[in-house]
Amino acid sequence: MSPLSHLDEHGHAFMVDVTGKALTAREARVRCVVAHVPNSVGFLAREPAALEEARLAGLGAAKATSSLIPLCHPLPLERLEVAFQLSAESIEVQATTATRGQTGVEMEALTACALAAVSLLGVCRRHDPGASVEELTLWEKRGGKSGEWQRDESGAMRHEEAASDAEGRNLSP
Fold first, then answer.
1. pTM of the model
2. DSSP codes, 58-122
3. What are the pLDDT digits (tens) for 33-44?
4. Which CATH number does the domain 24-141 belong to among 3.30.565.10, 3.30.710.10, 3.30.70.640, 3.40.50.300?
């Protein structure tokens, strides 16, 4: 058995079989920063349509994740949000995804956050040529076999294992 979940013992790629997994509530929250944008922040505050364009890019990207990332399961997203927080020299982008399914929604949240940030770069580079996307990070994950993971503000991860019944089925929400 390969240590990589999407490769068999012969090195052939395959989509992980989740048919035997229980349906559970799953949620993921991802953040990144569009940095080095002091001139863009003021522009975006005056022209919120640019933020809405970036939000739409993130929402669309999350819905297209299985088409963009090979072997990623297509998921029915039940919750999908992209939010922005402007500060003096940066923009924090946050994406939250949720579903009830047999596999997690981390990839969808990562894709939403990344594409919303890249969309903002298109606007920001005009005002701030040194703009960059930094710190694309999973901050929280709930549900599924591995339980709950949450990152604190220092970046350290805290893990709580999922509760299970006598047959090993996940009981986490």
1. 0.85
2. HHHHHHTHHHHSTTPPP---SEEEEEEEE-SS-EEEEEEEEEEESS--HHHHHHHHHHHHHHHHH
3. 999 999 999 999
4. 3.30.70.640
